[in-house]
């Protein structure tokens, strides 16, 4: 039986980050992944001959602003990774024709706010500065295990001054709607209040105010960059670091058991009957339901952990419409030709209604969405004259039981008829904002919650964020209260991925956290 120092169960980008650190340090590393290539949702594919698109994740602002890029960036670039930066990270288009962009320069952002509504620059500044002098420390916590002593000390100091709760504590539990309530412009209010939906927080969810501040700070610092040639080049570059340093990447293989002996993880069993032995650790890129109910089915899992793992909750799903068109997006506001990922919406209230309908199991009657066009910044992705677009609708039911508009009949699944009719609804909204776009569509591909569930078990029934991110499954409580953080009750078994802090998004931070534990052990 072949033996490795560290074995990774699953090859998502966080696992690849941790494996890259360890292989660089001279450890013998094995990454086992069930798919045809590693990367998880960080992958690219062919939409049409010669046309590259990103079926799942697309931009990497969290990654290029985090420690993994700081430490591995030069080696990733040697592997061929090149990062491209749109001029404007984001923006918003309203149905009444009003548009707004988010410049990275604070002065330009203030001018944009004033253009839309005199006096709004101060309200926007309040949202962006809500974390105050603690901003650096809070961003630092994004790459720390919140259950570690140092992080606990920082958190205790940040949330209380000894006399009461701090403004940071209030921001951590407040809603996005509350955070943006002083902004008078509906467009700018929607722009700031809508981004938390991309981490599964609707405008009225507790905790949304924190993300309403984090996103604009992140955009200011890192923009909204994309990898040249598709996001899959990031996974390829991380895999290249691993294999160049002697690590092994095995794809098309499913781990069915993590073997435990004398209280330690000693190896893994694969579905084809083969097995590998681990000298130092096993690292699982899985959610607690899979880990404790399935992979550790032969171990004695504490009842409190097992009970909570069985109740691990998944949130709403994601609907993405990928288009190849015969022309660029005909934006009325020409600034949008230089934008990363703007929202198309009728209002923040409209997004609230959308989220409420999805959580009730209904397909939203008039969805809010974002649109990004990578070929506007990266012409290598398609032949001249062809554009690639991604229309992303967060918060759709994983198993639709009805239609909020009463026009689409569903059997509880994303069957072909439901998929195509909802896609047509999405395009109807897009056409309101970008008249003439639909006439240029050459081909389309659609990602639904069913697509996500079939591709990645960490999505459960189709949740792109690896599990609900409400307060009960966020911060130091993620993934579950009985087993928080990245350590498990087995001393040399670790967990990482979207199911752990800091949650969803292509950041590499949970991989960094686990790598530091293993390098220091």
Topology summary:
Layout: E1 3-9, H1 13-24, E2 29-32, E3 45-48, E4 51-53, H2 61-64, H3 67-78, E5 83-84, E6 90-94, E7 99-102, H4 106-116, H5 120-128, H6 135-141, H7 149-159, H8 167-173, H9 176-179, H10 186-194, H11 208-222, E8 226-227, H12 232-244, E9 248-250, E10 255-261, E11 264-270, E12 275-284, H13 288-295, H14 303-310, E13 317-325, E14 343-345, H15 348-359, E15 362-363, E16 369-372, E17 387-396, E18 402-403, H16 416-433, E19 441-447, H17 449-455, E20 479-480, E21 483-484, E22 493-495, H18 509-520
Parallel strand pairs: 1-2, 1-12, 2-9, 6-14, 12-22, 15-18
Antiparallel strand pairs: 3-4, 5-8, 6-7, 10-11, 11-12, 13-17, 13-19, 14-16, 16-17, 20-21
Helix pairs in contact: 1-12, 1-18, 3-12, 4-5, 8-11, 13-14
Structural class: alpha/beta
Extended strand count: 22
Which value, in Å, is the CA radius of gyration? 22 Å
- Terminal Cα separation, in Å? 25 Å
* Average pLDDT level: 97
The low-confidence parts are: none
Which sheet architecture does the biggest sheet show?
7 strands, mixed
- Considering DSSP H and I runs of 4 or more, what fraction of the residues is helical? 25-40%
Net shape: globular
SS strand fraction: 15-25%
Number of helices: 18
